[in-house]
Specification:
Layout (H helix, E strand, L loop, with lengths): L13 E5 L4 H12 L3 E6 L2 H15 L4 E4 L5 H15 L4 E4 L14 H29 L2 E6 L12 H21 L4 E8 L5 H6 L3 H10 L12 H8 L10 E4 L5
Parallel strand pairs: 1-2, 1-4, 2-3, 4-5, 5-6, 6-7
Length: about 260
């Protein structure tokens, strides 16, 4: 990620990323490590997360802190936040990236599935923000970045619980921005388009589907995970000091 700009204020910053072990999250983890930040990331998948940490150590000379936790467990989330703060200092940047974009039929969703989906895609973002807020207040400010999705803006019908949660992320972002802004804490959201993560390519990307998406995008290339790091670094940095309660759409110009 040497082609990304350097933000001096991110060097040494204490950064926490949820779902940082794979996909877009891994690109975000690398992006902040490349800035020289003190990065911790939460992920439930242990093997790929430890592999990523080792790879980044070899590439940059310092490794992110991997924290294994189930984001549906609020106590585990709080414990992970505390561990990250003990190791790296009070968290100044929180990136709520973790998501579960499982496809589901309307008739197949029961209360248990709905609650699990919302817990992964929406609820954890509130409780991680709650857990870092007091430390950010004590530090005089910070930046929270919540990842939403363009899927709910496109009337995609294959995952109604997921799209409901991702719409909720925007409401949460604006509510937190209003609540935390007086303490110098900025809260923004990023809405990626269809990003070609390994998960997407393994499960849902077909030549026809990709061509249809590229036909609708104004930028005629398949979006890659690393392309989400630039917007996130910008919103985390002092370069975005006047920006809060906003949604940055990074979809190749589809919308």
């Amino acid at each position: 990620m040497t082609d990304l700009p350097t933000y001096p204020d991110l060097k040494g910053a204490s950064v926490l990323i949820t779902g940082g072990g794979s996909g877009i999250g891994a690109a975000l983890t690398e992006g902040f490590v490349a800035q020289g930040a003190q990065v911790a990331f939460i992920d439930i998948a242990e093997e790929p997360s430890r592999r990523l940490a080792a790879e980044l150590h070899d590439r940059y000379g310092h490794a992110p802190l991997y924290l294994k936790a189930d984001l549906t467990d609020v106590d585990a989330v709080r414990a992970a936040v505390d561990e990250a703060a003990r190791d790296h200092g009070l968290i100044s940047v929180l990136v709520n990236n973790a998501a579960w974009d499982d496809r589901h039929e309307l008739t197949d969703v029961d209360a248990g599935y709905w609650d699990k989906n919302q817990a992964i895609n929406l609820r954890h973002a509130f409780f991680t923000a709650q857990a870092v807020a007091e430390g950010m207040k004590a530090s005089g400010g910070g930046s929270i970045i919540n990842f939403t999705s363009t899927s709910f803006m496109l009337n995609i019908g294959e995952m109604p619980s997921y799209t409901a949660a991702k719409a909720g992320i925007i409401g949460l972002t604006k509510g937190l921005a209003g609540k935390l802004g007086p303490f110098g804490i900025r809260v923004n959201a990023i809405a990626p388009g269809w990003v070609m993560t390994d998960r997407q390519k393994q499960l849902w990307v077909t030549e026809d589907a990709l061509n249809e998406m590229l036909e609708r995008q104004t930028l005629k290339h398949a979006l890659q995970p690393a392309e989400m790091a630039g917007p996130c670094l910008f919103l985390a940095s002092n370069a975005a000091s006047a920006i809060s309660a906003q949604v940055l759409i990074a979809d190749g110009g589809l919308l």
